[in-house]
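Q: What would this chain look like folded?
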Amino acid sequence: MLVDERERFKDQEVVAAPVKSLRGQDEQKLKPRQSPLFQGWGENLSDEDQEEAQALFEKYGYNVFLSDRLPLNLELPYGPDLSMSMKRNALRAAEIWMDEYKHNVNIAWNIPIKDHGIDIGDVSERKELREKLKCKPFKWYLEKIYPQLDTWDNILAYGGMKNLDANICIDQGLIPGHTPIAFDCFNYGPQHTYYHSNGELYIGGLKSHKYNDNRCLADSGEDKFPDLYDCHEAVQKGMGIHWDFTQGKELKNRQTKRCLEIQKQKLVVQKCTGQKWEIQNIIKPF
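A: My prediction, written as C-alpha coordinates:
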Protein backbone atom coordinates (compact mmCIF):
# COMPACT_ATOMS: atom_id res chain seq x y z
CA MET A 1 0.00 0.00 0.00
CA LEU A 2 1.47 3.37 -0.99
CA VAL A 3 2.08 5.95 1.68
CA ASP A 4 0.26 9.23 1.25
CA GLU A 5 2.76 11.96 2.17
CA ARG A 6 0.44 14.84 1.27
CA GLU A 7 -1.08 15.20 4.73
CA ARG A 8 2.38 15.49 6.27
CA PHE A 9 3.38 18.36 3.99
CA LYS A 10 0.15 20.10 3.07
CA ASP A 11 1.53 23.48 4.19
CA GLN A 12 4.51 23.48 1.79
CA GLU A 13 4.86 26.88 0.07
CA VAL A 14 4.35 26.86 -3.69
CA VAL A 15 4.06 29.77 -6.09
CA ALA A 16 2.60 30.14 -9.54
CA ALA A 17 5.09 30.16 -12.41
CA PRO A 18 4.31 30.45 -16.13
CA VAL A 19 5.06 27.44 -18.31
CA LYS A 20 4.31 26.74 -21.94
CA SER A 21 1.32 24.58 -22.71
CA LEU A 22 1.29 22.12 -25.58
CA ARG A 23 -0.44 24.79 -27.67
CA GLY A 24 2.31 27.28 -27.02
CA GLN A 25 0.20 29.48 -24.74
CA ASP A 26 1.35 30.70 -21.33
CA GLU A 27 -0.64 29.36 -18.44
CA GLN A 28 -0.27 29.48 -14.67
CA LYS A 29 0.85 26.24 -13.06
CA LEU A 30 2.02 25.53 -9.55
CA LYS A 31 5.78 25.24 -9.36
CA PRO A 32 7.84 25.57 -6.15
CA ARG A 33 10.10 28.60 -5.97
CA GLN A 34 13.79 28.09 -6.91
CA SER A 35 13.56 24.32 -6.64
CA PRO A 36 16.16 22.20 -8.48
CA LEU A 37 13.66 19.35 -8.50
CA PHE A 38 11.72 20.69 -11.48
CA GLN A 39 14.62 21.69 -13.72
CA GLY A 40 13.79 19.84 -16.91
CA TRP A 41 11.19 17.61 -15.25
CA GLY A 42 7.69 17.72 -13.85
CA GLU A 43 5.92 20.38 -15.92
CA ASN A 44 3.29 17.86 -16.99
CA LEU A 45 2.43 16.77 -13.47
CA SER A 46 -0.86 17.82 -11.97
CA ASP A 47 -0.79 20.62 -9.39
CA GLU A 48 -1.41 18.08 -6.65
CA ASP A 49 1.42 15.82 -7.81
CA GLN A 50 3.81 18.78 -8.09
CA GLU A 51 3.10 19.68 -4.48
CA GLU A 52 3.64 16.08 -3.39
CA ALA A 53 6.86 15.73 -5.40
CA GLN A 54 8.28 18.94 -3.94
CA ALA A 55 7.28 17.99 -0.40
CA LEU A 56 9.07 14.66 -0.71
CA PHE A 57 12.12 16.37 -2.24
CA GLU A 58 12.23 18.82 0.67
CA LYS A 59 12.04 15.96 3.15
CA TYR A 60 14.45 13.47 1.65
CA GLY A 61 16.77 15.51 -0.55
CA TYR A 62 16.21 13.60 -3.78
CA ASN A 63 13.41 12.84 -6.22
CA VAL A 64 11.51 10.26 -4.19
CA PHE A 65 8.35 10.82 -6.23
CA LEU A 66 10.03 9.77 -9.47
CA SER A 67 12.28 7.04 -8.15
CA ASP A 68 11.82 5.45 -4.74
CA ARG A 69 8.02 5.72 -4.64
CA LEU A 70 7.56 3.64 -7.75
CA PRO A 71 5.31 2.06 -8.62
CA LEU A 72 3.01 5.04 -8.74
CA ASN A 73 0.48 5.27 -11.53
CA LEU A 74 2.80 7.67 -13.31
CA GLU A 75 4.49 7.12 -16.63
CA LEU A 76 8.14 8.09 -16.45
CA PRO A 77 8.96 10.91 -18.85
CA TYR A 78 12.18 9.26 -20.04
CA GLY A 79 11.16 5.63 -20.39
CA PRO A 80 10.01 2.51 -18.50
CA ASP A 81 10.94 1.58 -14.96
CA LEU A 82 14.27 -0.24 -15.28
CA SER A 83 14.85 -0.91 -11.60
CA MET A 84 14.33 -4.68 -11.82
CA SER A 85 16.71 -5.02 -14.76
CA MET A 86 19.26 -2.90 -12.93
CA LYS A 87 18.96 -5.03 -9.81
CA ARG A 88 19.38 -8.19 -11.87
CA ASN A 89 22.47 -6.85 -13.61
CA ALA A 90 23.94 -5.65 -10.31
CA LEU A 91 23.42 -9.06 -8.73
CA ARG A 92 24.98 -10.77 -11.76
CA ALA A 93 28.03 -8.52 -11.63
CA ALA A 94 28.36 -9.11 -7.90
CA GLU A 95 28.15 -12.88 -8.31
CA ILE A 96 30.89 -12.84 -10.95
CA TRP A 97 33.31 -10.26 -9.59
CA MET A 98 32.78 -9.35 -5.94
CA ASP A 99 33.60 -12.62 -4.14
CA GLU A 100 32.87 -12.35 -0.39
CA TYR A 101 31.71 -8.76 -0.86
CA LYS A 102 28.85 -9.62 -3.22
CA HIS A 103 26.25 -9.09 -0.49
CA ASN A 104 27.07 -5.38 -0.56
CA VAL A 105 24.87 -5.14 -3.64
CA ASN A 106 21.99 -6.61 -1.63
CA ILE A 107 22.62 -4.05 1.11
CA ALA A 108 22.81 -1.15 -1.34
CA TRP A 109 19.58 -2.11 -3.11
CA ASN A 110 17.79 -3.45 0.01
CA ILE A 111 17.48 -6.87 -1.61
CA PRO A 112 17.19 -9.95 0.66
CA ILE A 113 20.27 -12.18 0.73
CA LYS A 114 18.13 -15.26 0.02
CA ASP A 115 14.84 -15.83 -1.75
CA HIS A 116 14.79 -12.40 -3.39
CA GLY A 117 12.98 -13.72 -6.47
CA ILE A 118 15.38 -12.18 -9.00
CA ASP A 119 16.69 -14.66 -11.55
CA ILE A 120 20.25 -13.69 -12.45
CA GLY A 121 20.64 -16.50 -14.98
CA ASP A 122 23.69 -18.67 -15.59
CA VAL A 123 26.96 -16.83 -14.88
CA SER A 124 29.27 -19.86 -15.09
CA GLU A 125 30.82 -18.80 -18.41
CA ARG A 126 31.59 -15.34 -17.05
CA LYS A 127 33.24 -16.87 -13.99
CA GLU A 128 35.30 -19.15 -16.20
CA LEU A 129 36.41 -16.15 -18.25
CA ARG A 130 37.46 -14.33 -15.11
CA GLU A 131 39.52 -17.34 -14.05
CA LYS A 132 41.05 -17.70 -17.51
CA LEU A 133 42.07 -14.02 -17.53
CA LYS A 134 43.59 -14.48 -14.05
CA CYS A 135 41.73 -11.46 -12.70
CA LYS A 136 42.64 -10.41 -9.20
CA PRO A 137 40.19 -10.92 -6.33
CA PHE A 138 37.86 -8.11 -5.39
CA LYS A 139 39.65 -7.74 -2.05
CA TRP A 140 42.82 -6.74 -3.93
CA TYR A 141 40.83 -4.02 -5.71
CA LEU A 142 39.53 -2.69 -2.40
CA GLU A 143 42.97 -2.70 -0.79
CA LYS A 144 45.11 -1.43 -3.67
CA ILE A 145 42.86 0.58 -5.98
CA TYR A 146 40.00 1.96 -3.91
CA PRO A 147 40.94 1.77 -0.20
CA GLN A 148 38.59 4.68 0.60
CA LEU A 149 35.57 2.48 -0.09
CA ASP A 150 33.88 1.14 3.02
CA THR A 151 33.58 -2.64 2.82
CA TRP A 152 30.54 -2.79 5.14
CA ASP A 153 32.04 -5.90 6.72
CA ASN A 154 30.45 -5.19 10.09
CA ILE A 155 26.86 -4.64 8.96
CA LEU A 156 24.81 -7.45 10.49
CA ALA A 157 21.32 -6.55 9.28
CA TYR A 158 19.60 -3.99 7.06
CA GLY A 159 16.28 -2.80 5.65
CA GLY A 160 13.11 -1.48 7.24
CA MET A 161 12.81 -1.82 11.02
CA LYS A 162 9.31 -2.51 12.31
CA ASN A 163 7.82 -2.36 15.78
CA LEU A 164 5.89 -5.63 15.96
CA ASP A 165 3.53 -4.38 18.64
CA ALA A 166 2.44 -1.22 16.81
CA ASN A 167 3.10 -2.48 13.24
CA ILE A 168 4.91 0.77 12.41
CA CYS A 169 8.46 1.56 11.24
CA ILE A 170 11.37 3.84 12.08
CA ASP A 171 11.68 6.74 9.61
CA GLN A 172 14.47 9.33 9.43
CA GLY A 173 11.95 12.18 9.57
CA LEU A 174 12.49 15.63 8.12
CA ILE A 175 15.79 16.42 6.42
CA PRO A 176 17.47 18.62 7.48
CA GLY A 177 16.53 17.62 11.00
CA HIS A 178 17.59 15.42 13.88
CA THR A 179 14.38 13.73 15.01
CA PRO A 180 13.51 10.27 13.67
CA ILE A 181 9.83 9.42 13.65
CA ALA A 182 7.45 6.47 13.55
CA PHE A 183 5.56 6.09 10.31
CA ASP A 184 3.65 3.51 8.23
CA CYS A 185 6.10 1.00 6.79
CA PHE A 186 6.97 1.48 3.12
CA ASN A 187 10.64 0.41 3.32
CA TYR A 188 12.20 2.86 0.89
CA GLY A 189 15.37 4.89 1.51
CA PRO A 190 14.16 7.10 4.40
CA GLN A 191 13.25 3.96 6.36
CA HIS A 192 16.36 1.93 5.58
CA THR A 193 18.24 0.97 8.74
CA TYR A 194 21.60 -0.75 9.19
CA TYR A 195 22.64 -2.54 12.38
CA HIS A 196 26.41 -2.55 12.98
CA SER A 197 28.30 -5.18 14.96
CA ASN A 198 29.30 -2.52 17.51
CA GLY A 199 25.65 -1.73 18.21
CA GLU A 200 25.32 1.43 16.13
CA LEU A 201 22.06 1.74 14.22
CA TYR A 202 22.17 3.91 11.10
CA ILE A 203 18.95 5.32 9.68
CA GLY A 204 18.14 6.72 6.24
CA GLY A 205 21.20 5.58 4.31
CA LEU A 206 24.64 4.00 4.50
CA LYS A 207 27.75 5.93 3.48
CA SER A 208 29.95 4.22 0.91
CA HIS A 209 33.25 5.90 1.85
CA LYS A 210 35.26 5.57 5.03
CA TYR A 211 35.74 9.32 5.37
CA ASN A 212 31.97 9.97 5.51
CA ASP A 213 29.95 9.61 8.69
CA ASN A 214 26.69 7.70 9.01
CA ARG A 215 23.70 9.04 10.96
CA CYS A 216 23.28 7.19 14.23
CA LEU A 217 20.12 6.64 16.21
CA ALA A 218 20.95 8.18 19.58
CA ASP A 219 19.49 8.68 23.05
CA SER A 220 20.50 11.84 24.92
CA GLY A 221 18.89 10.56 28.11
CA GLU A 222 17.42 14.04 28.64
CA ASP A 223 13.95 13.74 27.11
CA LYS A 224 11.68 11.06 25.75
CA PHE A 225 12.46 11.48 22.05
CA PRO A 226 15.32 9.79 20.17
CA ASP A 227 17.84 11.75 18.11
CA LEU A 228 19.52 11.24 14.75
CA TYR A 229 22.99 12.75 14.31
CA ASP A 230 26.22 12.00 12.51
CA CYS A 231 27.73 9.36 14.77
CA HIS A 232 30.83 11.37 15.76
CA GLU A 233 28.70 14.43 16.52
CA ALA A 234 26.36 12.36 18.68
CA VAL A 235 29.32 11.05 20.69
CA GLN A 236 30.65 14.59 21.13
CA LYS A 237 27.24 15.58 22.52
CA GLY A 238 27.47 12.76 25.04
CA MET A 239 24.62 10.76 23.52
CA GLY A 240 24.33 6.99 23.64
CA ILE A 241 24.63 5.57 20.13
CA HIS A 242 25.04 1.86 20.88
CA TRP A 243 22.00 -0.39 21.09
CA ASP A 244 21.51 -3.98 22.18
CA PHE A 245 19.16 -5.73 19.81
CA THR A 246 18.04 -9.27 19.05
CA GLN A 247 15.66 -9.95 16.21
CA GLY A 248 12.09 -9.97 17.49
CA LYS A 249 13.01 -8.48 20.86
CA GLU A 250 13.58 -5.07 22.47
CA LEU A 251 15.94 -2.35 21.21
CA LYS A 252 17.82 -1.06 24.28
CA ASN A 253 20.37 1.73 24.54
CA ARG A 254 23.52 0.55 26.31
CA GLN A 255 24.30 3.92 27.86
CA THR A 256 20.90 5.07 29.11
CA LYS A 257 19.34 1.60 29.58
CA ARG A 258 16.18 2.92 27.93
CA CYS A 259 14.33 1.26 25.05
CA LEU A 260 13.14 2.59 21.72
CA GLU A 261 9.37 2.16 21.74
CA ILE A 262 6.13 3.42 20.23
CA GLN A 263 3.81 5.49 22.39
CA LYS A 264 0.64 6.94 20.90
CA GLN A 265 2.04 6.42 17.38
CA LYS A 266 5.22 8.36 18.26
CA LEU A 267 8.80 7.15 18.47
CA VAL A 268 10.08 7.50 22.05
CA VAL A 269 12.85 6.28 24.34
CA GLN A 270 11.60 5.23 27.74
CA LYS A 271 11.77 2.57 30.43
CA CYS A 272 11.56 -0.75 28.65
CA THR A 273 8.11 -2.35 28.51
CA GLY A 274 9.04 -5.29 26.29
CA GLN A 275 8.08 -3.91 22.89
CA LYS A 276 9.55 -5.97 20.06
CA TRP A 277 11.36 -4.92 16.87
CA GLU A 278 12.20 -6.72 13.64
CA ILE A 279 14.61 -5.70 10.88
CA GLN A 280 13.97 -6.85 7.32
CA ASN A 281 17.17 -8.64 6.32
CA ILE A 282 19.76 -10.54 8.36
CA ILE A 283 23.31 -11.01 7.03
CA LYS A 284 24.97 -12.63 10.05
CA PRO A 285 23.43 -13.97 13.25
CA PHE A 286 23.66 -11.64 16.25
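Residues 19 and 118 are 42 Å apart (CA to CA).
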